[in-house]
Amino acid sequence: MNKTKVKTYASDRVKCILDNSHVASGLTKDSFIKITPSGGGTSYTSGAYGEVVRSMDPSRMYEVEVVTDYGSPTDEWLMNRYKRDRDTYDGMFDMMIRDLGSNPLFKGQGCSIANIPENGYSSTAATHTWKILVAYGDYDT
After folding, report:
1. Apex CA 102: angle with CA 78 and CA 137, to 5°?
2. Which of 1, 21, 117, 121 has the greatest CB tally within 10 Å of its CB?
3. Cβ atoms of residues 10 and 101 within 8 Å
4. Which CATH number among 2.30.30, 3.30.70, 1.10.287, 2.30.110 corresponds to the domain 11-140?
């Protein structure tokens, strides 16, 4: 018998905490959080005689997309934070995203909302895709 370890993923065990106090809720059923590095990462350059130099971008910037259902508590929280930042320039916050299963913890500092989400109307309730810019992000295992 093959003794391969089976892992379990459950979307209800993924937690997103904004500003150390707001636990995200009202997220869409499918593909509700996406974390994308914004920095340059690692690149290689080859010289005239074939020497290779590796460059490492020290940036730890990320873009996090959070998709909410229309009118959810997190939809309202993000809109209020966006308005606060536009009015007072004091809307930055920290965030944590954790799969309580086996995936690593993502921590973000100096987060701000890029812009209000695109809005659409149809026969069913809409979703909003919020783009959150993260100045300093990192994974912690």
Report:
1. 45
2. 117
3. yes
4. 2.30.110
